[in-house]
Design brief:
about 270 residues, alpha/beta, Rossmann fold, 4-stranded antiparallel sheet
């Protein structure tokens, strides 16, 4: 599973729309599963399951009708049986005869993912599938994505929830200002950023304000227990902590993706 990350406007949705054959590239070429998207668009579309960021199903059809329509469009062998299976898998049975336009946001997301998976695609292109859904639906979606990758499918999933990327991704791709800045495992991404982090506990707010203004501290995020600091040199960070916080508890920690990507994004803005 590849987590596709980056700030708003960085190019993630545009890239996914090109991969899905919805948007034509201005230049260059785009291949999916070894097939050129422009030369063989139908073969590509039959092999992918695309879930757009905005709800794009038929709002004047019921949940069941949307599932049946998608199953038939993809040439599924037994649309009725597949529809019943998806209704059960995504807990949509109580809403089967409700118009899609009358569903809540979370139920719309469930329906959209169900439609995208009916034909057992080899590649999932999921554009912020967990945006705006409740925690139970988030868990359902990630369990489903992991089930699909376990059967052999690949998944490209965009998200702004960095904890999801840290927990589930085999590989992380970061796009900003239309440029690919990072492509690697979590460990590779953190190492490439050059960041180091320190966790401090029990520091008073006024001391944290002074620490945040210290040039040796690049980023400071307040937590319930204190703060997480990030910078380019571990010893310099520890010296800053000692200078402003005295004997406050401090310990090195692995940088979080939040600090890593904030750093990468700012660096990209400076170089643009």
């Amino acid at each position: 599973m590849v987590a596709f990350l980056g700030p708003n406007g960085g190019g993630k949705t545009t890239t996914m729309r090109m991969l899905a054959g919805i948007l034509r590239p201005d230049r260059g070429r785009c291949t999916v599963l070894g097939r050129d998207v422009l030369r063989d668009p139908w073969a590509v579309r039959r092999s992918i399951g695309y879930m757009s960021q905005a709800f794009s199903l038929y709002q004047d059809l019921t949940v069941r009708e949307n599932l049946l329509f998608a199953a038939r469009a993809y040439g599924v062998g037994d649309p009725e049986a597949t529809c019943r299976a998806m209704l059960a898998r995504f807990a949509l049975e109580p809403f089967a005869d409700r118009l899609a336009g009358a569903l809540s946001g979370g139920l719309r997301q469930r329906l959209a993912l169900a439609c995208a998976l009916q034909h057992a695609p080899r590649l999932l292109l999921l554009d912020e599938p967990t945006s705006g859904v409740d925690p139970a639906t988030r868990r359902l979606f990630w369990r489903t994505i992991l089930e699909e990758t376990a059967r052999g499918a690949a998944a490209l999933v965009s998200t702004h929830y960095l904890d999801e990327a840290e927990q589930y991704a085999d590989r992380i791709v970061y796009l900003a200002e239309g440029q690919l800045l990072v492509d690697g495992t979590l460990a590779q991404v953190i190492e490439a950023s050059g960041l180091v982090s320190v966790r401090v506990r029990g520091a008073p707010p006024e001391a944290l304000e002074r620490l945040e203004a210290d040039a040796r501290v690049w980023y400071l995020a307040r937590t319930a227990e204190g703060a997480v600091l990030a910078g380019g040199d571990l010893e310099a960070l520890m010296e800053a902590v000692r200078a402003h916080l005295g004997d406050a508890a401090a310990e090195p920690m692995r940088p979080r993706l939040e600090e890593v990507f904030l750093h990468l994004w700012r660096r990209a803005k400076e170089q643009a």
